[in-house]
Structures are given as C-alpha cells and as structure tokens.
Amino acid sequence: MLGSGTSTGVPRIGNDWGACDPAEPKNRRSRVSIAIENDAGQRILIDTSTDLRQQLLATGIDRFDAVFWTHDHADHCHGIDDLRPLRYGRGGPIPGYAASETVRRLRQRFGYVFAGQFGYHTIVELDTLDRLRMCAGFGVASCQMPHGPAQSTAYRFDCDGKTIGYATDFSEITREMIDLFYKVDLLVVDCLRREPHPTHAHLGMALELVETTRAGCGVLTHLDKSMDYATLAGEVPANVLVGFDGMELAA
C-alpha cells in the first residue's frame, strides 16, 4: 500500500490532524495508490497519486510492468509525471490501462505522456480495458462503480492461485461489484469516514462489502483525518485491517 489517505492527505495542510494522533506514524497518510507484485517479480501500479514520487522513494520501487487507473480525479492521477524516470532504460513505453472515459480524460489532460513531445519519449502506451484479460502475468477483471455523479473502476487481479480486489472511491455497492470481488483473498476497500458521504464509502458500507463478498481479508483505505488508526483498529472485525502507508500484505 503506497498511500492510504483521502484527497487532502493526513494531516491536512495547516497541520490539521483532526481526530488522528500525530504521535502514531500510521496516521500520516499520503494519497491512495497500491503496488501489486507476483511470485515472478512482475509488478503493477494502481493509480499515479499526487504523492507518487515520495511513495516510490520510501519503498525503493523503481520499476513497473504496467499501470492501471481507477479514474481521473486529481489525487489518483496527478502524479503521472513521476512515471518518467521509470521509462528510462525501457525498450518502449510502460503499458497503461483504464476505462474508456478515463482514457479519454487522461489523454485530454496529459497528452504529452501518451504521445511524446519535443524529442521526449512516450512514457505510457495507454489503452482501454475492453479486451484486456491478462497483463504482466496477472489475470485482470474490472467493473465500473458509482462514485457520486462520476464512476470509478474496480479491479480484480488473479495470479499464483491468489486474488486481490481493489475498490476505492465508490458510493454504492452494486451486484457487479459483489460478483467481481466474490471470495477474493484480499479486498482493499474505500472507507473515508464513519458517517455516510455522497461520493465515498463509509465504515459501515466498507464492512458490508467485505462481508457480502466473503473476502478473506479486508483492508481499509482512503481514510480521512477522523479515522485514527488505533481507534479504528479496535473497532473492526478480525478479518479487516486498517491500511497505512507502506503496509505490505501477502495474499
């Protein structure tokens, strides 16, 4: 887990920790993204968060075999320039994937990343998810989730007999989500706060998705300043973990 925080991070600018204990390192949250690696060492990135450079420096990661985006909101894609050093030494662009509308919006905003400019190489070769079933050794499945008036892409990756689901930025549980995540080993799930929110899952909804899908282990992410790590860890069921920056899990 590269980043586990909401769009403003924790603490917010102004050193605003909210209900989070500043003395607990796991409460310091950068914007959400995750890295997934299989037994062969192939590695994929989900979202280029605003804090991607610091996340990769902190974890020592300097290579990805592919990049996936959930949607085009700033906290999930505005770190895209930090992919440029990962392009060095490669024989070609990094493969990148997203839903059709996200692809359109990313191309509109970051055209130089996907087409090169002024002698600079193309950084990412971007394509839609329409026909994608395998990537870098991972089986890939996805569906669209309601994210208030927008949509976010849910992902399921299968490899080495293990499965991980990623569901960030959703505001409603759909049948397609339940089918996609059914019996995954790990389910990383949006959990902004305890109270309902118009565009994000709250604690009750996050726990409902873990229970309904019968996921082996749920991991909460996209946490805001009201979600103190130690307090929340004492509230959740035994099969649910509170995510934090730098967290490593084996499915």
TrEMBL record:
Q: Please report the stretch or stretches of sequence annotated as the Metallo-beta-lactamase domain.
A: 43-222
Q: What is this protein called?
A: Phosphoribosyl 1,2-cyclic phosphate phosphodiesterase
Domain of life, per lineage = Bacteria
- According to its UniProt record, what is one Pfam family this protein matches? Lactamase_B_2
Species whose genome carries this gene: Novosphingobium kunmingense
Q: Which PANTHER family match?
A: HYDROLASE C777.06C-RELATED (PTHR42663:SF6), HYDROLASE C777.06C-RELATED-RELATED (PTHR42663)
Sequence segments annotated as region (Disordered)? 1-25
